[in-house]
Input
Amino acid sequence: MQFIDQARITVRGGQGGDGIAAFRREKYVPAGGPSGGDGGHGGHVVLEADANLQTLLDFKYKRLFAAPDGRRGGPNKCTGASGRDLVVKVPCGTEARHLTTGILLGDLVETGQKLVVAFGGRGGLGNAHYLSNRNRAPEKFTEGRDGEEWPLQLELKLLAEVGIIGLPNAGKSTLIAVLSAARPKIADYPFTTLIPNLGVVRRPTGDGTVFADIPGLIAGAAQGAGLGHDFLRHIERTRLLIHLVDVGAEDPVGDLRVVEKELAAYGHGLVERPRLLVLNKQELMSDDKGPELIDELHQVSGRRPLVISAVMGTGLDALLDRVWSELGV
Output
């Protein structure tokens, strides 16, 4: 399934039905009078969060969502039928913004949460509404009003409590594959992961915690370089970040600084977000330089790093203990 996390759509509320001008003309009703009914209201366009959806792929092929119009009024003061609301399903974690102004209209996080993004027009009034002592036979009626029409920007931000970040090939996909049942693509070249991967890791209490593997960041990611700019938004909702550093890289300290700089450049409070510094690929760490590297990274980051090997499965229990402690489990 193709992962789409942004979409531009147009929503249009239904037009209200027209009122009508009509008079009673029954055989045994000598004083008939106006009996034109009101038009029905147009339907609203409503966004609803659905936990069964994981992507905005449906909005790639359909861009206009228009609710049904209201029906015109009828004789004998019959009101026309109102248009039914158009309910559009979106994944949980979808933000709806006005496309031109950028104003946030709503954030759909929980399953079943609804947001009206375009109201339908009011129905017109029939001539029965204009009956008065001065005008006993009004012929005036009004037309239904147009529904609202807005261009929207939909953005999906994954709902994950823990986000795994780091440079390409730091071992993020391997780690989430070992900790959960997720099976992301893993290979020995950069940018293997092109979309965020989600995995559920069991807590000691038996509940599941969602981990997200965010595609590799590079220098300039916050300004649009590489893949990081497209997916940094997905860690905005996370409560805890795991910063993975490859100890087998040429300059692990420089790699640490690159990611820290991009978090600061992107903003949205990511620098203040609680995060763990984790050194991966322990099997590549030499005994003589390992303690020196750990101390240097500790000094630069201010965090005592954990050392693990996702491939060998070492240090994972200690890592999860720290994660549950940070999350208050």
Remarks:
- Residues 169 and 190 are 5 Å apart (CA to CA).
- The first helix runs from residue 172 to 179.
- Residues 184-193, 219-229 have pLDDT under 50 and may be disordered.
- The chain is about 15% helix and 25% strand.
